[in-house]
C-alpha cells in the first residue's frame, strides 16, 4: 500500500536537522528572524520561524565519515532518494536517533497516522517514552531529541526537496519542532514550528533556498534531521511526523549521481556477507569483529538432494528495540541472515566485549520476532579473546548486553570422547532437550543456545565458559551426516547446572548405554522440531521475504525488463525464479519466500532497476489485522534489509512497495543501491 507524495500546501524552504544538545544555552543558537508568513500554514494557530544554530555532534562521528558511495542513478525528472512511512521499526533504512539510549526519543506509535497505521512521535521512544501512552502528552525539558538522516549527496542535482506530514499540538511559547539542514554536521539552518495544526498538514522544504544558507544542491555531503524541544511548562500531545519523502532532480547534461546514505553519525553501518555451500565452512566477520561461524554441515542440501548454497550476512541494526529493563546494551544490535531457515547444524554468533567491561556480567539477547521482544540467550564467554557468543540453528536479531542476571547463571564445560565404533566421529552438536528451571520460569522465556565441539575433547575450559539459567537439564547430542539418514543422536541423563563453579558435562559418542536415534533431534526452542530447511537459490540478485504470522504474504519482484516474478509466474526470461512459496495450503510459520537470479558465472541477473513488492493474499482462516515482515535483498554481496508492517487484512490486488533497487553491471564498479 504505497503512500502518495505530499501535496504542496505549506512551503517553508529548508530541511531537517541533526542531533545533539542544540537547544541548551551556550550552544550557539542564532537570534530568531521575523516569523515566516503564517498564512502559508493551513492552520492560523502556528508559529513558523527561521532559525540557525550550532550543534554538538561528536567529532569522531563526523570527521571519520567517508563520502557517501556514488551511484549513477539520478536521471532527468524527480527521483525518490528516501521514503519513510514509519510502518516498520524506528529508526530504519538510513535513520538514526540522537542521543542514544535516551529517556525520551523519537518513537514509532500507532495513536496517530497520516497513512498506514503508524507515524513518528517526537517523545514516543526511549526508555521512558516508549511505555507512556500518547494521551500523556509530551514531557518537560526535552532538549535534544533528534531523528537523523545522512550524510547523503545532492551532487549533480538541479532541484531537491523534503516533504513530510506534520500533526502538531504544543504550547506557543518555548515548545517546538525544528527541521534543519547542514553541510558540515555542525552549523544548521532551517525553521522551528510550534502551536497546533489542523490535523495532518503537509510541509515541503526547498533545498535550493535554505534560510541563512542558500542552496545545498550539488553538495556531496548533506545532513537532515527533525528535533523537538520543550521547556518547563508543557501542554499538548506533541509532534508527529509521517510519510517523509526526500527527492531530487538531475540535470539534462553533466553528472547524474545519487548516493547511498551513510548513517550512525556519518559512518556507514557495518555489514559483511559471503555465500557458503554444503560441505564448506566459513567465518563472516565485520571490521569490528562481530561474526558468524558457519561450520561444515550447516548448509543443508537442496530439495533434490544436491549441494546447496546460502548467502550469510551480518548487518548492524540501529533501529532495533532497546533491551528490557535491567539489561544494558554493549553497542548496537545486529541482524543475521538468512532468516527464516533452520540450518542443518548450529552456527555461532560472536560479539567482541569492550575493554573495561566485567566479563562476568556479559551476555547475549536474541530478538523473538513472534513475541516482538528481546529474550535472554545463554552465552559462552572467552575471557582471553574477550568475546561472547551463542550457537543457534536459525537467525534473527542478536545484541550483546550487560546485566547482573548473567552473574547468577549456572556454569559448565563440555568434554567429549569416542565410544566403541566411534573412530570416524570428529565432531558433536549439542542442544537442550529438557529444562526444569530453578526459578520456576517458563522455558519459552529463554532463547536456548546450541553448541559444537570437536571429538575427542578433554575439556573446553581453557577457552569457553558456558552458561545456562540455573536448573536441571537433559541434552541432545548428535553426530554423523551430512544427510538425515546418517545422522544419529542420543540424550543425556539429568544434569544439575546450578553453581558458579563449572560442572563438566561429559559425552561419549556413540554412548555406551541408552537409546540412539536416527535423524535430527527436536532441540528446545528450535522451530519445526529442529528439522532443517532445504537450501534455496541465491546468486547475483536474491530477494527473500520473512514473516511469522499465519497469513499468506506473497513476494513480487519486477525485473528491469518489466517482467514480474510471483506465485502465478515463478520464472522469468532472464533465469529469475521463485523457488520457495509459503501458501496457506502447505503453510509453515516462519518459512520465507525467495526469488533469485543465478550467480554471475551462470548467467547472472540483468542490470537495471528491480521493484520489490509484497501482497497480503490470504488470512489462512485466521483473523490477523497487522503483519510485521522483513525483506532482505542481496545484490552482488551487498545486503539491504527492509522492515515494514502490513495492516488492514488480505487484499491480493493491493501491493505494498518495499524497495526499488539498482543493479549496475559489475564492470561499472558502481555500488548496488536500494531505496
Tell me the major beta sheet: 8 strands, mixed
Helix content: under 10%
* Cα radius of gyration in angstroms: 26 Å
Number of separate helices: 2
Low-confidence stretches: 1-43, 59-76, 251-267
> Which geometry do the CA atoms define?
globular
Q: State the end-to-end CA separation.
A: 16 Å
The strand order across the widest sheet is: 16-17-21-25-24-30-27-34
Percent of residues in β-strands: 35-45%
Mean pLDDT: 83
Quickly give the structural class: mainly beta
For the secondary structure, the number of strands is 45
Walk me through the topology.
Layout: E1 46-54, H1 59-63, E2 69-71, E3 78-84, E4 95-98, E5 105-109, E6 119-125, H2 126-129, E7 145-152, E8 157-169, E9 176-182, E10 187-195, E11 201-206, E12 222-229, E13 238-250, E14 258-260, E15 271-277, E16 282-285, E17 291-294, E18 309-317, E19 328-329, E20 333-337, E21 347-352, E22 362-368, E23 373-377, E24 380-382, E25 387-392, E26 397-402, E27 410-418, E28 427-437, E29 450-454, E30 465-468, E31 471-480, E32 487-491, E33 495-497, E34 503-509, E35 517-518, E36 541-547, E37 552-558, E38 564-565, E39 577-580, E40 593-597, E41 608-618, E42 626-635, E43 638-647, E44 655-663, E45 673-674
Parallel strand pairs: 27-34
Antiparallel strand pairs: 1-10, 2-14, 3-13, 4-7, 5-6, 6-13, 7-12, 8-11, 8-13, 9-10, 9-12, 15-18, 16-17, 17-21, 18-20, 19-26, 20-26, 21-25, 22-23, 22-26, 24-25, 24-30, 27-30, 28-29, 28-31, 31-32, 31-33, 32-35, 36-40, 36-42, 37-38, 37-41, 39-40, 41-44, 42-43, 44-45
Amino acid at each position: 500500500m504505497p503512500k502518495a507524495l505530499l501535496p504542496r500546501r505549506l512551503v517553508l524552504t529548508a530541511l531537517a536537522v541533526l542531533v545533539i544538545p542544540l537547544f541548551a544555552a551556550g550552544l550557539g543558537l542564532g537570534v530568531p528572524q521575523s516569523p515566516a508568513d503564517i498564512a502559508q500554514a493551513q492552520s492560523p494557530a502556528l508559529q513558523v520561524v527561521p532559525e540557525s544554530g550550532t550543534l554538538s555532534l561528536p567529532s569522531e562521528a563526523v570527521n571519520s565519515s567517508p563520502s557517501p558511495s556514488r551511484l549513477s542513478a539520478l536521471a532527468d525528472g524527480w527521483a525518490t532518494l528516501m521514503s519513510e512511512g514509519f510502518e516498520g521499526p524506528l529508526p530504519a533504512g538510513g535513520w538514526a536517533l540522537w542521543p542514544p539510549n535516551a529517556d525520551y526519543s523519537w518513537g514509532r506509535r500507532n495513536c496517530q497516522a497520516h497513512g498506514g497505521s503508524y507515524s513518528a512521535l517526537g517523545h514516543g521512544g526511549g526508555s521512558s517514552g516508549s511505555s507512556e501512552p500518547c494521551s500523556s502528552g509530551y514531557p518537560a525539558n526535552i532538549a535534544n531529541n533528534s531523528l537523523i538522516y545522512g550524510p547523503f549527496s545532492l551532487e549533480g542535482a538541479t532541484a531537491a526537496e523534503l516533504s513530510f506530514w506534520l500533526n502538531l499540538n504544543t504550547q506557543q511559547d518555548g515548545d517546538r519542532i525544528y527541521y534543519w539542514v547542514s553541510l558540515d554536521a555542525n552549523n544548521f539552518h532551517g525553521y522551528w514550528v510550534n502551536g497546533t495544526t489542523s490535523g495532518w498538514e503537509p510541509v515541503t522544504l526547498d533545498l535550493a533556498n535554505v534560510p541563512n544558507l542558500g542552496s545545498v544542491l550539488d553538495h556531496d555531503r548533506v545532513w537532515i534531521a527533525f528535533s523537538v524541544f520543550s521547556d518547563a511548562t508543557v501542554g499538548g500531545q506533541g509532534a508527529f511526523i509521517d510519510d517523509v519523502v526526500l527527492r531530487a532532480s538531475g540535470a539534462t547534461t553533466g553528472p547524474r549521481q545519487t548516493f547511498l546514505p551513510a548513517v550512525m553519525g556519518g559512518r556507514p553501518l557495518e555489514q559483511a556477507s559471503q555465500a557458503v555451500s554444503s560441505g564448506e565452512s566459513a567465518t563472516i566477520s565485520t571490521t569490528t569483529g562481530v561474526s558468524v561461524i558457519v561450520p561444515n554441515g550447516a548448509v543443508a542440501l537442496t530439495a533434490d538432494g544436491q549441494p546447496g548454497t546460502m548467502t550469510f550476512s551480518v548487518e548492524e541494526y540501529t533501529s532495533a528495540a532497546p533491551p528490557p529493563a535491567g539489561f544494558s546494551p554493549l553497542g548496537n544490535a545486529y541482524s543475521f541472515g538468512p532468516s527464516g531457515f533452520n540450518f542443518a547444524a548450529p552456527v555461532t554468533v560472536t560479539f567482541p566485549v569492550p575493554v573495561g567491561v566485567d566479563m562476568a556480567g556479559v551476555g547475549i539477547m536474541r530478538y523473538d520476532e513472534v513475541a516482538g521482544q528481546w529474550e535472554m540467550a545463554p552465552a559462552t564467554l572467552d575471557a582471553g579473546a574477550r568475546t561472547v557468543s551463542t550457537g543457534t540453528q536459525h537467525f534473527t536479531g542478536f545484541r550483546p548486553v550487560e546485566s547482573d542476571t548473567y552473574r547468577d547463571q549456572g556454569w559448565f564445560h563440555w568434554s567429549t570422547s569416542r565410544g566403541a565404533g566411534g573412530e570416524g566421529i570428529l565432531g558433536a552438536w549439542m542442544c537442550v532437550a529438557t529444562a526444569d528451571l530453578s526459578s520456576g520460569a517458563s522455558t519459552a522465556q529463554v532463547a536456548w543456545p546450541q553448541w559444537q565441539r570437536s571429538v575427542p575433547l578433554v575439556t573446553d575450559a581453557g577457552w569457553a565458559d558456558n552458561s545456562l539459567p540455573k536448573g536441571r537439564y537433559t541434552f541432545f547430542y548428535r553426530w554423523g551426516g551430512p544427510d538425515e539418514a546418517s545422522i544419529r543422536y542420543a540424550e543425556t541423563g539429568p544434569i544439575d547446572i546450578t553453581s558458579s563453579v563449572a560442572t563438566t558435562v561429559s559425552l561419549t559418542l556413540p554412548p555406551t548405554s541408552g537409546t540412539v536415534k536416527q535423524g535430527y533431534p527436536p532441540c528446545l526452542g528450535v522451530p519445526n522440531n529442529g528439522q532443517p530447511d532445504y537450501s534455496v537459490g541465491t546468486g547475483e540478485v536474491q530477494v527473500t521475504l520473512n514473516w511469522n504470522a499465519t497469513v499468506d504474504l506473497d513476494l513480487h519482484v519486477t525485473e528491469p525488463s518489466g517482467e514480474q516474478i510471483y506465485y502465478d509466474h515463478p520464472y522469468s526470461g532472464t533465469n529469475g525464479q521463485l523457488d520457495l512459496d509459503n501458501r496457506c495450503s502447505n503453510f509453515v510459520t516462519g518459512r520465507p519466500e525467495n526469488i533469485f537470479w543465478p550467480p554471475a558465472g551462470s548467467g547472472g541477473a540483468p542490470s537495471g532497476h528491480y521493484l520489490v513488492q509484497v501482497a497480503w493474499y490470504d488470512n489462512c482462516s485466521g483473523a490477523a489485522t497487522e503483519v510485521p515482515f522483513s525483506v532482505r535483498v542481496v545484490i552482488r554481496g551487498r545486503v539491504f534489509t527492509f522492515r515494514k508492517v502490513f495492516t488492514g487484512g488480505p487484499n491480493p490486488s493491493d501491493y505494498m512497495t518495499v524497495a526499488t533497487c539498482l543493479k549496475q553491471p559489475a564492470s561499472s564498479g558502481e555500488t548496488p543501491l536500494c531505496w
